Amino acid sequence: MTTTASVRVSLQPRRSRTQAEPTANSGSLVDRFGRVHRDLRISITDRCNLRCVYCMPEEGVAFAPRSQILSYEELGRVARIAHGIGVTRVRITGGEPLVRRGLESFVATLAEIGFDDLSMTTNGIGLARRAQDLANAGLHRVNISCDSLRPDRFPKIRRSGELPPVLAAMDAAEKAGLRPIKVNVVVLAGINDDEILDFAAFARDTGRVVRFIEYMPLDGAGNWDRSSVVPAAEILETIGKRWALEPVVPSDSDPSAPATRYRFTDGMGEIGVIPTVTEPFCGTCDRLRITADGAIRNCLFASQETPLRELLRSGGSDDDVARSLRRAVYAKLPGHGINDPGFLRPARSMSMIGG
Ligand code: SAM
Ligand code: SF4
User: Fold this and answer.
1) Which residue from 126, 145, 128, 144 is spatially nearest to 53, judged by alpha carbons?
2) pTM score
3) What is the position in ligand 2's atom list of the atom closest to the CA of 56?
């Protein structure tokens, strides 16, 4: 294998001395370290039809009251304003985006704005029969989460749902042209790490890009610990012993993308690893998020948010919204700090933030 143990150089951004505090009327979404933000994740709901062990507790989940959830009109407005100040890629997420009614027309709203990339992350339940409508509405592609290829294990990890409909969703998405299909796999030590080679074989057989994600301290139950994390370097080593891999060179790859990409040297497809815990890639991060209840988050792990809902509902102008987006980005810290001794988990877990 041609990979090294180091997945990616951990880039801490350099502080720019010239980066002035942003105003409402000027410039793109740039932070104090010169990172220009072009990628917006929009969570449209904090609800979900599954309860994956690494994401939501089995019971007792407190959802935001519906009155606090931003309407599609409000979300569309934020997206349009963000597009006007440099956002070129949008991803719809949640919770589970397919559980909110009217998704297809929201996709059409985003498509009309004209983003270069319009994607959605979904657990795939129910996608098979909606993939064509979503593609017709203007969705470009989907990431489908699937943590096991074993029908008996799949519902244990996701605490509900079954594998066949998710595989059918991948087929339907492909048929509808929602490509490339990316398959998100959260690797959990002792639970599904014995399927790493099966997933690599799946990537080779199907041409789908399997992305192995390190388990992050964002589970709703608060059970995360370091011993449950399978480091990306180990995942690559396991695969590399079976099939030779080579990094996708930077010119073919988006340096701000969270996944480090590798292709099989025999031309049989591609995989990715997302080494958030063991090899943070904050130095190239260009992502910001809007939660379903209308807060701007500049990092998955941020302890602070910038509220937007009241501004939207109290007659705030487009310039006011742009200013909030710029200020939120400007306040971004250089890194997520997971590996710092004083790291505190954010109050919200993954399904409430929008992964
Ligand atoms: N419900 C959709 C789904 O499962 O794809 C979209 C929302 S989900 C929060 C987005 C992504 O976050 C999924 O790929 C999921 O596997 C991932 N995820 C959730 N909790 C995680 C955790 N604690 N660590 C790493 N990834 C996580
Ligand atoms: Fe739901 Fe997605 Fe979280 Fe699983 S990962 S519980 S499908 S939001």
Assistant:
1) 145
2) 0.93
3) 6
